[in-house]
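Fold this sequence, please.
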Amino acid sequence: MAEKTIREPARELPVAGDYDLCVLGGSCTGVFAAIRAARLGLSVALVERMGSFGGVATLSLVNIWHSDLDEAFEKRIFAGLSLEMVERLRRRDAVQDSLRSGAARWIFNSAEMQIELDEVVTEAGIDPWLHTAFCAPWVEDGRLAAVIVENKSGRCALRARFFIDATGDGDLCHRLGLAGRVAAHFQPGTACALVSGWESVGQAPWREIVARQADAHRMPKGFIWSAPVPGTDLRMLAGTRVGEDCSDARGLTRAEIEGRRQIRAIQDILREHVPGSRVGLAGLPARIGIRETRHIDCLHRLSGEEVLHGKRFDDAIANGSYRVDIHHRDKPGITFRYLDGRETYTRHDQPPVEGRWRAAQAVDPTYYQIPYRCLIPQGPYGNLLAAGRFIDADEQAHAAIRVMVNMNQTGEAAGVAAALALRGGVAAAAVDPRQLRATLREGGSVIL
């Protein structure tokens, strides 16, 4: 009987770089953390296991960012690097605006975004490591001192004085043994696709058609939407629902295959049941869009009550107005909850159900906040911060804050906090939130 384990021989690894800051994960969250830190004078390594930066915005083809205005569309609640990227894309006619929309403030070309991120990383003097997989942390004398990575050149180590985990699943925190959890009712993922010939669908009720045919094609009845791709005649189509745990290797593998199967099923339904449809599959994502997996326990867990009631925090580093958006794993459709107390349950094969999650009141909050404490992992490592969708939030809070424009702000905050911690010779938890907020404001962020 074969052994269930093998012993890998010990070996010495070359140190391929020595930095002030190492950011793991090259989504917009990770890129923005790296840029903010570099602009404050840090030497920065940016490690990404795929071949390009941008994460969900590029690799997963999700080409919308949500509103920079509050729920009443009266006050700007964020700016910073998200707006910088929009302006850069605008110069290439690669973005469309929708000012008074809570669903899609900007629609952009993901391919143009991918190249633009290359340029901003290069301009900032960041040392990029693409096609480089994080393997393990390296701890010396109780302090996180390096990360072990592997790429085409082999296995090596990257040393740094400070680290930001922007891996999406909190891989660095998890492999350090820090406390965390996979949400009991985590939201399912979605594989998007690029399609051609969308004009042939015309005014057909395609969402309802897909929902009615879902059972015959073993399709969960999720939520289907689409967006144009600026500068092309293609359209991004999002309608799959995959309930695998993507923090697990087997689960992620099953999710990728199932997502592609469902993309083909939607394509077949449109061809067979929409008269005159000539929709063709033009592109697949490099990675499934993941809404939720692991959360790391931090100094504060943001609650749904704090989000929905618009609680203010003295250490707030991000503001958002995107609704609570729950993609259910145990029933069709989605539930939206708004800061003004409204609630809508929507599924495409039935009329929406309107209600309220709380009674009407004289004054409603119009935005919510994320405190810096949600980015500071519990544990002994003072030179580590979290940024992105795995920060500490309960399931209802996560359903609102998880969207890219909110997570982009957590990246910016982590990058600035890393610079302040190193400048002051203090742990992440000891960074003065007043100084953090002031420095973020100086760098272009909206601080409320």
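Residues 249-273 form the longest helix (25 residues). The chain has ten helices and 22 strands.
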